[in-house]
Each structure stands twice: as structure tokens, then as C-alpha cells.
Design a protein that fits this description.
The structure holds 2 protein chains of 2 kinds. Helices cover about 75% and strands about 0% of the residues of chain A. By secondary structure, chain A is mainly α. The longest helix of chain A has about 35 residues, at about 5-40. Chain B has 2 domains: about 1-115, no CATH class; about 120-400, ABC transporter involved in vitamin B12 uptake, BtuC, CATH 1.10.3470. Chain B starts with a helix and ends in an 18-residue tail after the last helix. Chain B has helices at about 1-40, 65-85, 90-110, 120-145, 155-170, 175-200, 205-225, 230-235, 255, 260-280, 280-290, 295-300, 305-330, 340-350, 355-380, 385-400; strands spanning about 45-50, 60-65, 115-120, 240-245, 260. The longest helix of chain B is centred in the N-terminal third of the chain and has 37 residues, at about 1-40. The chains are: A mainly alpha, B mainly alpha.
Chain lengths: ~400, ~425
């Protein structure tokens, strides 16, 4: 090792990054191909469907050019903004995904499987909405951070319970976080039709006050807001926490080998609780971002599948914050485009879940991808993601 | 060395004895204060014992004065708690039984005072509601006895539920639906087994992928194809109730146990068969060996991979039967995400049942009881929001998984891939 020269090292590093990226990329491509087969079987043209997916997520190039021409000729921005709408909408969709993906990724790093991002997201959104609509008369500079923090706290509480049960009793976090999801759904049913019900007939919360809204950057149809940059900031902070602090090192050690970590004097119980609190907090922030930046109120079915998407995102991003951001962007574009695909090509949006399931299988079993595309295996240490029922 | 370990275990036992005793005392107090003070003196609670339309011989209803009964329950709980603190009872099963019985009975007395409450009906619906949970639990038992965790039961049941209703509607025969559902379950589980045995994929992740895929695929098919063709694809009818001649005449027991549909009977039969297979046949011995110590089993010539593959696939077929229950066994049509976490509750029942078929079935009955109690209480207009009652099974699952009510020990090699 010592006699390799600098450029050789660089070359080696580059090829390592390449092979690291190869499997996720091929997994997504394979998932999309299988999705196309499903579309063909259901009697639609996959090119038309994926075309609608593309224009739904990035916007149509023709309209973009038109908008630019109108803008340069007359200074009129309406057309241009409408052309940008799909692109910004994809980023808006990606925002909660980044937070929720980070939540699951953080759990994986400590050997915990947080399937409860869904419930934590919902409870976080409800808490953020509560702070948003119940306190009046505060200036934005206090009210907005308070509402964001409220969401984080709600999610953290929801994550802490399974974390504590795991640390104290060894109760498996997979089943417990799922149970917490169902409890969150029932609780929200009650809250939205009872204590938190807003004016009107529908079971939704009141609209939050303007002082709790995340500022938007463009005029009205565009919902792109500060939340996206907060998500990127969160990704950087998680990176810093995991790789640059002692606590992060401890968490990664516990995840890699709990016995060794215990032997080295690390407190496993504390780390489990801490990670679940942080993971819950991140998922709660996803809820904050969604309610304070996009919807301004919470209704039933608010957390439509974010938690499960987050699992795919964390796996696809290999539990690395940068990977999570990239994977979240991909899923943001997919989900946002799928809405367009549903209306244009009448392909139900659930196709994304089908693609997701396959991507997860391919990521978890890279041998399938390697076998199918005839790639030679790279010898490296596999990271342990989850454990059995035991501790 | 030996002495100190005995000290530790007796210390744990003493702590456990005290905590059980205190819990019982607290429950007794809660019963007395909460239900006792809210029950009107002189009110009567009627427990109906006859089910409308059943073949059982009619008996008179059970009428109990509510307040004395609540006080009696409180007294029993307090007495047992005090006895437990003073002397200690060996069997935790009895303690949990008394705890649950006094609380639930007092609760019912309070909830149904001056009203009539059909006990037979509730027990019957408990058994029916326990069926999918029990099938999920049995799937878990058979897979995990061979050391493969299958967390994708929920997804398997969803896919089987859809396949059952579609094939049954198209073919016009419920039995075709049943068989297709079982085959579907077996196929998905075989895929899971293939991934975790051949490719050594993380078992939990493979299971989660199955859940996500199952939820997505069934919702996709249901909204794309079935929403507009309900009569052609999604209207199968359900298995009829089969009353067993003679036995169904017995009051209370008859309607509860002997007037059910095919899937409920099959479940009970499966519990018995699996118990015998697991503990009294060579196949069962090999399965358990593969789950406890695969290396030892391998040296004795047992094909570890083959045993695991077969067990997981069989488990999937059982889960497929559970999926069929949701559609052709109960409502006759498919709704999106209709399993509502039953697969996971089944896993909790498996843990609580200590990876035994009979234990798993018994704990499924507890979940079924909680589920049907919740429905009945809504009818009685109990002043508790129905959403909280709906949470009960999930909370019970979490409490059970903590192991405070008796620690469960999984098969030693559970969840670990086997490398030669």
C-alpha cells in the first residue's frame, strides 16, 4: 500500500467511487425498465407514459424556450414561471424526502431500522401546524423557528418511544415503529376530527398564520420555498455529526459492531435512544417543511407514503447524506412526474411504489444486478443494515 | 461463580414478583375508583348468550348486578396482588390471566350497565377476527423456526387477498380463489427465500421490499383495472358458514366454535397439524435444528438451505390463506391496504406465543378479542373516542414485545444467513 504513488491512489479512488455509483444507477434503470414492462402489460405506451413523467418532473423544453422568448421580448414573467413550475414542484416534493431519507439513513448507521418515519412525519406535521395556528401575534423571526422546532419535537417523541423500548427491553424497532405509525394514524384521525379541527366540515386543522410560513421565493403558483435549503443544511449537519464528531463515530461503531463498541466502553443503550430521537426529529422536520412550506394545514392521509419512500431513499443513497440528497431528488422528480403521468397517461401513481420495491431488492441484492449486467464483484466490506429479533 | 448467578436470577425474580404484585394492586384500585364510582348502584348488566340465527339451543341471558360485580373484581385483583407480594405465585400466566380478566370484566360491567351486551357474539367475532392474525403468526412460526425472518407477511397477504378475489370472481368458484391465493403466497415467499438464501440479502430489507411492492402492486391493479369493473373482477362472494351437525347445538360454544366458515376451521386444523409436525416428526426436528444450530444440523447431513427454502415457502402459503380470508373469507371484495397492519400484529402474536403454533394461536385470540371488543364498545356508545379503542391492538403489541409479560426466546440462529 505504501509504495503506491499519488496519481495511482487518485485513480483507485475514482474507480471506487464509480463502482459505488454503478449499482444504484443500474438498480434505478432496471426498476424503470421493469416499470415499463408493467405499463405495457396494463395496455399503455411506456414511451408516452415516461414522456409524461419527464415533462411532469422537469417541464417541457418547448414551453421553457417560449417562456424565455416572451420574457426577453416583453419582460412578461408569467409564461416563464409556468414553464418552471414542474421543475420547482419536483424540488418541493424532494424537500420532505431529504429530511425523511436522512432520518432512515441515520438509523441504518446505528444498525436500527426506522420504518416509523411515516408516523413521525405525521406527528411532526401536526405539531408544527399546532404551533403555527394556535399562537398569534408573534413576529416571524420567533414564530417560524418555533413552529419548525415544534415539528421536530413531535417527531422526536414519536421516535424516542421505540428507541427506548429497543434499548431497555430489546423490543424490535421494526415492529414497534410500524405500530407507532398506526397509532399515529388513529391519533390524527381523532385530533383532526376533535381538538384540532378547524372551522368547516372537513376534518382538517385550521390554516397556520402567515408568520409561521416558510418564505417562498417566487410568485404564487410556484411553491418553492426555504424548506429545500433547510433540508440541504440538515444533510450537511448530519454528515458533520456522523463523520466529524465523537458521538457520530460512536453511533457508527455501534452500527458496525455492537459487541466491539460495548467492549470499547460505548454506551449502546444511550446511542439507540439518541439515534431514534434524532431520526424521529428529522422525520418530524420533514413534516414541518411540508406543512409550513407547502400546505399550511394538515388533513387526513397527509403522510401518503413518505416513510416508505424514505426507506428506499436511504438504501439507494447508501445511508450517506450526500447519497440521500441525490436519491431524494430522484424520488422527488419521480413522484412529481408520476402525478402528471397519472393524469396524462392514466397510469396510477402506485407504479412508483412498484418501481421502488424493485429498486430496494436490487440495492439489497447487488449480486442480481452484477449477474444480470455481467459486472465483476468488487471485494469490500458490506455494511450491516439490520439485525434479527435479538439485540 | 455459580452462587452469584443464582443470586442475580433470584433478584430478577424478586423484582418481577414485586412489580407484578404492585401492578395488580394498582389495577384493583383503578377498577374500584374508575369503574366503581362511575357505575350506578342498582344497575344491571345483561350478557346475551344467544346469537341471532344460530342453531344453538336457547338459554336464558346472564343478568348481573353491575356495581357488586365491579367491586368483586377490584377485590380479586387487590387480593391477588397482596398475595403475590406476600408469598409470590410461580405462574406468570395465571397472574396475567387474572389481571386481564378482572380489568376487562369490570370494564364491560361499567360499559354495559343498564344495557344488554351479547357475549356470545363477541366471542364469535373474536375468533373470526383472530383468524388472519393467527395465519400471519403461523407463517412467522414456521419460517422463523428455520431461522428466516419474514417481515413481508403484510405484503404477501395483500397480494394473495387480491389474487383470491380476482380469480374467484373470474372463475366463479371460491375454491379456485383459495388455491390461487395459497399459490401466490407460496410464490412470493419462495422469492423471499431465494433472495435471503441464495443472495444473502438482509432478511428485514427483503421483507420491507415485499411490503412496499405488495402495497404498490395491489393498489396499482385495484385502481387501474378493478375500480371500473367491480362486477367482473372484484365481487366474489364469501365462503358460507358451515354449521357442524350436533356440536353447533351446544349453547355459547356452538355458535362460537362450530358455526364458522372454511378458513376459520382450516386455521384451527393448521395449528394442530403444525404443532404435531414441528414437535413429533423428523421434519420438525430438522426444522428446529436448522433454526437453532445450522452448523450442527449440516454436519449431521441436513440440507440447511433446502429446509429453509421449504419452510419459508410453506409459511408463505399459510400467509396466502390469511390473505384469502380478507377477501373471499369475509367481505367478498378487495380494498386498498385492507390488511391494516394485521401481518405485523401476527408477528407480535408469534413472539408472544413463544414461536409455538398453539401459543401463537392463543395470543392471536387475545388480539382478536381486543379487536372485537373495540367494535362492540362503539355500539355501546362508550364515552371513549373510537380512535383510541382502535389503537388498542397496536399498543398491546408494543407492550407484548417489551417482554415484561414473560420474556420470549427466539430460535438461536433466527435472522442469520448460513454460510458453509
Amino acid at each position: 500500500m505504501s509504495n503506491t504513488t499519488a496519481p495511482e491512489k487518485k485513480e483507485k479512488k475514482r474507480s471506487a467511487i464509480w463502482s459505488e455509483l454503478l449499482v444504484p444507477v443500474l438498480a434505478v434503470v432496471s426498476g424503470l425498465i421493469l416499470g415499463a414492462i408493467v405499463i405495457v402489460v396494463s395496455g399503455e405506451n411506456p414511451f408516452r407514459a415516461y414522456g409524461a413523467l419527464f415533462t411532469g418532473s422537469f417541464g417541457s423544453p418547448v414551453r421553457l424556450i417560449d417562456g424565455l422568448q416572451i420574457y426577453s421580448a416583453t419582460g412578461e414573467t408569467r409564461q416563464l414561471l409556468r414553464a418552471f413550475y414542474p421543475l420547482t414542484e419536483s424540488l418541493v416534493t424532494a424537500t420532505p424526502y431529504i429530511f425523511a431519507g436522512l432520518s432512515v439513513a441515520l438509523g441504518f448507521r446505528c444498525g436500527l431500522f426506522n420504518i416509523g418515519a411515516e408516523g413521525q412525519f405525521f406527528i411532526g406535521a401536526l405539531s408544527a401546524a399546532f404551533v403555527g395556528y394556535s399562537i398569534q401575534g408573534l413576529p416571524m423571526i420567533i414564530h417560524l423557528p418555533l413552529a419548525i422546532l415544534g415539528g421536530a419535537l413531535g417527531g422526536a417523541l414519536w421516535g424516542m418511544i421505540p428507541g427506548y423500548l429497543k434499548a431497555r427491553f430489546g423490543a424490535h424497532e421494526v415492529v414497534n415503529t410500524i405500530m407507532m405509525n398506526w397509532i399515529a394514524f388513529r391519533l390524527s384521525d381523532w385530533l383532526l376530527d376533535g381538538p384540532m379541527k378547524g372551522p368547516g366540515f372537513r376534518p382538517v386543522t385550521p390554516t397556520i398564520f402567515e408568520t409561521a410560513e416558510l418564505p417562498r421565493f417566487f410568485p404564487d403558483p410556484l411553491r418553492f420555498n426555504l424548506g429545500f435549503f433547510l433540508a440541504l443544511l440538515a444533510a450537511y449537519l448530519v454528515y458533520w455529526f456522523l463523520f466529524k464528531t465523537t458521538l457520530g463515530f460512536e453511533i457508527r461503531s455501534v452500527g458496525a459492531n455492537p459487541d466491539a463498541a460495548k467492549y470499547a466502553g460505548m454506551n449502546i443503550v444511550r446511542n439507540f435512544v439518541l439515534v431514534m430521537v434524532l431520526a424521529g426529529g428529522l422525520a418530524g422536520l420533514a413534516g414541518s417543511a411540508q406543512v409550513l412550506g407547502v400546505d399550511y394545514w394538515v388533513g387526513q392521509g397527509f403522510s401518503a407514503g413518505y416513510g416508505f419512500d424514505a426507506i428506499a431513499i436511504a438504501l439507494l443513497g447508501k445511508s450517506h447524506p450526500l447519497g440521500v440528497v441525490l436519491a431524494a431528488l430522484l424520488f422527488g422528480f419521480l413522484r412529481s412526474g408520476a402525478t402528471n403521468m397519472q393524469s396524462m397517461a392514466s397510469i396510477p401513481i402506485d407504479i412508483i411504489s412498484i418501481i421502488q420495491g424493485m429498486v430496494i431488492v436490487f440495492i439489497a441484492a447487488p449480486e442480481i444486478i452484477r449477474w444480470f449486467y455481467r459486472i465483476r464483484a468488487v471485494k469490500k466490506d458490506e455494511t450491516v443494515l439490520t439485525r434479527g429479533w435479538g439485540s | 461463580m455459580n452462587n452469584s448467578s443464582i443470586d442475580i436470577s433470584s433478584a430478577i425474580e424478586r423484582r418481577r414478583r414485586i412489580s407484578f404484585g404492585v401492578t395488580l394492586l394498582v389495577v384493583g384500585l383503578v377498577i374500584y375508583l374508575l369503574f366503581g364510582s362511575n357505575t350506578k348502584p342498582g344497575s344491571l348488566t345483561t350478557f346475551g348468550l344467544n346469537l341471532l340465527g344460530s342453531q344453538a339451543i336457547e338459554v336464558s341471558d346472564l343478568v348481573i348486578p353491575a356495581l357488586p360485580a365491579v367491586h368483586l373484581m377490584a377485590a380479586i385483583a387487590v387480593f391477588t396482588g397482596a398475595y403475590q407480594l406476600a408469598r409470590g405465585v410461580r405462574s406468570t400466566g395465571w397472574l396475567i390471566g387474572i389481571l386481564a380478566f378482572t380489568f376487562v370484566f369490570a370494564f364491560l360491567m361499567w360499559a354495559a350497565q343498564d344495557k344488554s351486551f351479547n357475549l356470545t357474539g363477541m366471542l364469535q367475532s373474536s375468533l373470526v377476527r383472530a383468524t388472519p392474525i393467527a395465519l400471519a403468526a403461523l407463517c412467522g412460526v414456521i419460517s422463523e423456526r428455520a431461522a428466516v425472518i419474514n417481515i413481508g407477511i403484510e405484503g404477501i397477504m395483500l397480494m394473495s387477498a387480491l389474487v383470491a378475489v380476482v380469480t374467484a370472481t373470474v372463475s366463479g368458484s371460491l375454491y379456485v380463489g383459495l388455491v390461487s391465493a395459497i399459490i401466490m403466497g407460496g410464490l412470493v415467499a419462495a422469492f423471499h427465500a431465494f433472495l435471503v438464501i441464495r443472495f444473502k440479502v438482509d432478511q428485514i430489507i427483503s421483507g420491507v421490499a415485499i411490503n412496499i411492492f405488495g402495497a404498490g402492486a395491489t393498489s396499482f391493479i385495484s385502481s387501474r383495472f378493478m375500480a371500473h369493473a367491480t362486477d367482473k373482477l372484484n365481487n366474489s362472494g364469501t365462503f358460507p358458514i358451515i354449521a357442524i351437525p350436533g356440536l353447533s347445538k351446544i349453547p355459547v360454544l356452538g355458535p362460537v366454535l362450530f358455526e364458522n366458515n372454511l378458513i376459520v376451521y382450516l386455521t384451527i386444523l393448521l395449528v394442530i397439524v403444525m404443532h404435531i409436525m414441528l414437535f413429533y416428526t423428523p421434519w420438525g426436528l430438522r426444522t428446529r435444528a436448522v433454526g437453532e444450530h445450522p452448523k450442527a444440523a449440516d454436519t449431521l447431513g441436513v440440507n440447511v438451505y433446502f429446509m429453509r427454502f421449504v419452510n419459508v415457502t410453506l409459511g408463505g402459503m399459510i400467509a396466502g390463506l390469511g390473505g384469502a380470508y380478507f377477501t373471499i373469507g369475509s367481505v367478498g371484495r378487495f380494498d386498498e391496504i385492507m390488511t391494516a397492519g394485521k401481518g405485523f400484529i401476527g408477528l407480535a402474536a408469534m413472539v408472544f406465543g413463544n414461536w409455538n403454533p398453539i401459543g401463537a394461536y392463543t395470543s392471536s385470540l387475545i388480539f382478536g378479542f381486543a379487536d372485537s371488543l373495540q367494535v362492540k364498545l362503539q355500539i355501546l356508545r362508550v364515552p371513549i373516542p373510537s380512535e383510541f379503542l382502535l389503537m388498542a391492538p397496536y399498543i398491546v403489541t408494543m407492550i407484548i414485545l417489551t417482554g415484561v409479560v414473560g420474556r420470549a426466546i427466539p430460535p438461536a440462529a433466527d435472522g442469520q444467513p448460513y454460510e458453509k
